[in-house]
Amino acid sequence: MTEIRSYMKEKQKRDQERLNYKDKIMRHKLQNVYRILLIVVVVLAVIGIVILQYNRHLYTGYDVVSSIPLDLTSGTIDVRLQNCILTYSKDGAHCTTAKGIVNWNQTYQIQDIKLAINKNVAAIASYNGREIYVQNTEKPLGTITTNMPIRDVAVSANGDVTAVLSDSDVIWINTYDTDGKMRFTGQVHMQETGYPVDVSLSPNGILLAVSYVYLDAGEMKNNVVFYNLGPVGENMSDLIVSAYSYSDLLIPEIYFADDETAFAVGDNRLTVFKGNQTPVDGAGHIFDKEIQAVFYGEKYVGLIFGSDDAEHTYKLEIYNTDGKKVTTYYFDLDYTDIFFEEKDFVIYNESECRIITYGGTEKFNGMFSKPAELLIPTNGTYRYTMVTATSIDTIQLK
């Protein structure tokens, strides 16, 4: 009996020691977990502070990272062609990279130029002429010759071109591939359909949008018609997949932001059409002030109004591809261009520049050291290509 009691006491002692050991191990593990959690919290806090400081940081100047001499010819115009510089005049055009490399040079004689751009593709045509020159950032893609005078052009990102052609009382709307092969042709009788005031092709070349204006019993009306140049349109009359009519309204601009979103802008109205095969009238806004200017991006459209704030000259309203207003910004800068980036939008002229986040935080408000002809964003954060009369500068905000 004594041996049994002794054995039980010894067993209880060993069990208690095991419990104490397990408890020590558990406490040690918990201490490690607490240390790790504390480190994670500290790291997240540091990251949060860095992000907050980054978002609130105001750049006050810039460094010129590189500069390449440039000799601009009088009478030329520089525009952005994706990440390159398209320079054109009545005598020809060429495309230059940010490193100053000329990728191609196209000669022609055009007195009245019609220019269309879609992502990295440009079409240069002669108003009232019969030649259309198509090129991307890397090379010329082809020349299209029409059999009637050109009134307007649109281009897709794959090089297809739509031309509005005049033939006495009939207007032709023809779409060609880069080899000049006809993809679509249609007659427009102005007494019935109206006059096409703007045309636009989706980047993939499947959708064609045309804005027609016409008079009905002395009242001005506008039709927006969508044509599908793909298999879906083949089953529709004249390839028309949707059409919308608006009274007492002129829609002089229509633009495809992507393959399924088109912005239509009237005197005091913005309409967003959605659909990659059959666009439908989606979000719309009617304003109590006239739209003074429009700037487009792949994700946004910016509308300039006269300011309703006595302290500023202009009001900019930015909308996304769903038609939702992203921000409103008041300013006084006499802008020459506005473009949209992922987190910011940029307003500039030849001497001044402002960069603002969509949340309204000003990131840069400064002067250029020399007149800027063109400003193009690069892949670097707050790094830009600035074209001047004498150089192509890569600048980095600081």
Identify the notable features of this structure and list them briefly.
398 residues, four-stranded antiparallel β-sheet, 2 helices
What does this structure look like?
By secondary structure, the chain is mainly beta. Helices cover 15% and strands 51% of the residues. The chain has 2 helices and 32 strands. The protein has a 4-stranded antiparallel sheet with strand order 1-32-31-30, with no helix packed on it. The protein has a 4-stranded antiparallel sheet with strand order 2-3-4-5, with no helix packed on it. Strands 6-7-8-9 form a 4-stranded antiparallel sheet, with no helix packed on it. A hairpin with a 3-residue loop joins β19 and β20. It is globular, with a radius of gyration of 30 Å. It starts with a helix and ends with a strand.
Class of secondary structure makeup:
mainly beta
Assess the beta-strand content as a share of residues. over 45%
Number of discrete helical segments: 2
Biggest sheet record: 4 strands, antiparallel
Count the beta strands: 32
Report the helical percentage.
10-25%
Output the radius of gyration: 30 Å
Strand order of the largest sheet: 1-32-31-30
Report the average pLDDT across residues: 90
Overall geometry: globular
What is the CA-CA span between the terminal residues?
Answer: 88 Å
Q: Which spans have pLDDT < 50 for at least 5 consecutive residues?
A: 48-53
